[in-house]
């Protein structure tokens, strides 16, 4: 029997959904009045849409009546109202705990300001998420995310410290050093992007490390889609001989560890009494979709007062389920986590293709290596898509038939995506290594348009 409790906050995590929904509605109504009466950014947007906080009497009202906000709107507001925008709130310097940021296309960061009260609450939320994932005080948590302007590793370290685990904040050092120190220290939890976890599997083989016999028991992944997709997840879990737990939302939604997979691994729990998540139509954010139907995620801070996000559109796709998990938590779930970014979707010959779907196919092949690349081009008036797949070292040594591998890949891509895909197979090491977040898609159609 474990010496530790099952839940971080049992009453909260196992509350009847009907009672939780009433709490959520009360928090939404309170937040709407707060942002409308206090933050000029929201008052302007709501007045433009002829919306008033008292219009929301149900959760359905919230989805169908309240306008969304986007990253572009936040950036523009900070440019007009530097430094933190007119949605920052009126806080004294001594009331602010953190100033963080994210890079923008212009090179000017978008700044985040977190109050002492909000930062303290975030620590408890992140602890609850990591406890849900199975992390305990006797764990050693090795963090490879950067500790810089970006929230990155700060949320991981904050939650791990709060629950009492030993933190090893190594940051983004060389891969060989990650592996060496992992064994030397005896880390039991490793936190990184799914792409980097996959990269280390192959790096370990090159260096002669046996990942399957190391001390890591759990991988806490985030920063990109893939941690809950069956193909990549199984590959990572088998390569590390450890459980994989997807845990993240968006930087703007700090505390961002409010979507997390528990030890039962039946889906990603959504802590919707902290950050309320909706799934809506991709073309209409005021139209909810049915449970199980894919759509766009919209997030809302229910407690945060410093730069609160109310119906923030991060541009991610997912679907939600109310199926109960055997762990006993009563939160809704994202069965496959975040599927990918809506703006990453590629349209080829009328077919909508997401990079996550391509990755799921690539990771099925026993001969595929760590890297692959998707190239979209135009041949005459027709769109063409090519997938370059690395062949791993082991299958090269086994002298597998290259024609057979190519035929296998072409068959599965045609079957899953519904269109013909050109396949090129190259030896492992041909493509650039992924060290942090993967950039897999090259759309050369945009280059052709730009040169005309």
Strand coverage percent: 15-25%
CATH superfamily of the domain at 345-451: ANL, C-terminal domain
Structural class: alpha/beta
Shape call: globular
Number of helices: 14
Largest sheet: 5 strands, parallel
**Overall mean pLDDT:** 92
Radius of gyration: 23 Å
Distance N to C terminus = 69 Å
Helical residue percent band: 25-40%
Low-confidence stretches at least 5 residues in length (pLDDT < 50)?
none
Largest beta sheet: strand ordering:
5-4-6-7-8
CATH class of the domain at 345-451: Alpha Beta
The name CATH uses for the topology of the domain at 345-451 is GMP Synthetase, Chain A, domain 3
Say how many strands there are: 22
Description:
There is one protein chain. This protein is of the alpha/beta class. The chain has a domain at 345-451: 2-Layer Sandwich (GMP Synthetase, Chain A, domain 3), CATH 3.30.300.30. Helix content is 33%, strand content 22%. The protein contains 14 helices and 22 strands. It has helices spanning 10-13, 17-38, 40-48, 59-65, 71-80, 116-132, 154-163, 175-185, 194-207, 230-240, 355-362, 393-397, 402-417, 445-451, and strands at residues 69-70, 96-102, 110-115, 140-143, 166-168, 189-192, 218-221, 243-246, 259-261, 268-270, 275-280, 295-301, 312-313, 316-318, 333-334, 340-341, 346-348, 351-353, 368-379, 382-391, 422-427, 441-443. Strand 6, helix 9 and strand 7 (218-221) form a beta-alpha-beta unit. The model has no long low-confidence stretch (mean pLDDT 92).
Topology:
Layout: H1 10-13, H2 17-38, H3 40-48, H4 59-65, E1 69-70, H5 71-80, E2 96-102, E3 110-115, H6 116-132, E4 140-143, H7 154-163, E5 166-168, H8 175-185, E6 189-192, H9 194-207, E7 218-221, H10 230-240, E8 243-246, E9 259-261, E10 268-270, E11 275-280, E12 295-301, E13 312-313, E14 316-318, E15 333-334, E16 340-341, E17 346-348, E18 351-353, H11 355-362, E19 368-379, E20 382-391, H12 393-397, H13 402-417, E21 422-427, E22 441-443, H14 445-451
Parallel strand pairs: 1-13, 4-5, 4-6, 6-7, 7-8, 19-22, 20-21
Antiparallel strand pairs: 2-3, 9-10, 10-15, 11-12, 12-14, 14-16, 17-18, 19-20
């Amino acid at each position: 029997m474990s010496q530790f409790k099952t839940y971080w906050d049992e009453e909260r995590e196992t509350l009847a959904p009907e009672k939780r929904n009433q709490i959520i509605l009360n928090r939404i109504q309170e937040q709407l009045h707060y942002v409308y009466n206090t933050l000029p950014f929201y008052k302007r947007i709501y007045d433009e849409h002829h919306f008033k906080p008292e219009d929301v009497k149900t959760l359905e009202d919230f989805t169908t009546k309240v306008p969304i906000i986007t990253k572009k709107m936040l950036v523009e507001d900070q440019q007009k109202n530097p430094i933190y925008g007119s949605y920052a709130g009126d806080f004294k310097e001594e009331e602010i705990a953190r100033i963080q940021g994210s890079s923008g296309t212009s090179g000017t960061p978008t700044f985040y300001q977190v109050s002492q009260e909000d930062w303290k609450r975030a620590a408890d939320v992140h602890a609850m998420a990591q406890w849900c994932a199975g992390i305990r005080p006797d764990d050693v948590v090795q963090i490879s995310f950067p500790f810089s302007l970006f929230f990155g590793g700060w949320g991981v370290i904050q939650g791990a410290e709060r629950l009492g685990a030993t933190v090893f904040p190594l940051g983004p050092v060389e891969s060989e050093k990650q592996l060496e120190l992992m064994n030397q220290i005896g880390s039991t939890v490793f936190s990184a992007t799914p792409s980097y976890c996959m990269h280390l599997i192959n790096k370990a083989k090159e260096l002669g490390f046996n990942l399957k016999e190391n001390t890591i028991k759990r991988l806490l992944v985030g920063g990109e889609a893939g941690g809950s997709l069956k193909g990549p997840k199984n590959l990572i879990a088998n390569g590390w001989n450890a459980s994989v737990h997807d845990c993240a939302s968006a930087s703007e939604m700090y505390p961002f560890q409010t979507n997390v997979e528990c030890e039962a691994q039946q889906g990603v729990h959504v802590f919707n009494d902290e950050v309320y998540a909706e799934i809506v139509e991709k073309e209409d954010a005021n139209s909810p979709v049915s449970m199980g139907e894919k759509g766009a995620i919209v997030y809302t801070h229910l407690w945060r007062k410093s730069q609160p996000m109310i119906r923030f559109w991060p541009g991610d796709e997912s679907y939600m389920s109310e199926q109960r998990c055997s762990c006993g938590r009563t939160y809704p779930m994202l069965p496959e986590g975040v599927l990918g970014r809506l703006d990453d979707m590629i349209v080829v010959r009328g077919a909508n293709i997401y990079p996550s779907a391509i990755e799921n196919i690539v990771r099925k092949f026993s001969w595929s290596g760590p890297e692959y690349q998707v190239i979209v081009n135009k041949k005459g008036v027709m769109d063409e898509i090519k997938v370059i797949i690395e062949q791993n070292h082991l299958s090269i040594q086994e002298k597998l038939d290259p024609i057979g591998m190519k035929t296998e890949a072409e068959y599965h891509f045609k079957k899953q995506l519904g269109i013909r895909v050109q396949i090129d197979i190259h030896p492992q090491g041909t493509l650039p290594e992924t060290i942090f977040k993967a950039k897999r898609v090259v759309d050369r159609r945009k280059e052709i348009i730009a040169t005309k």
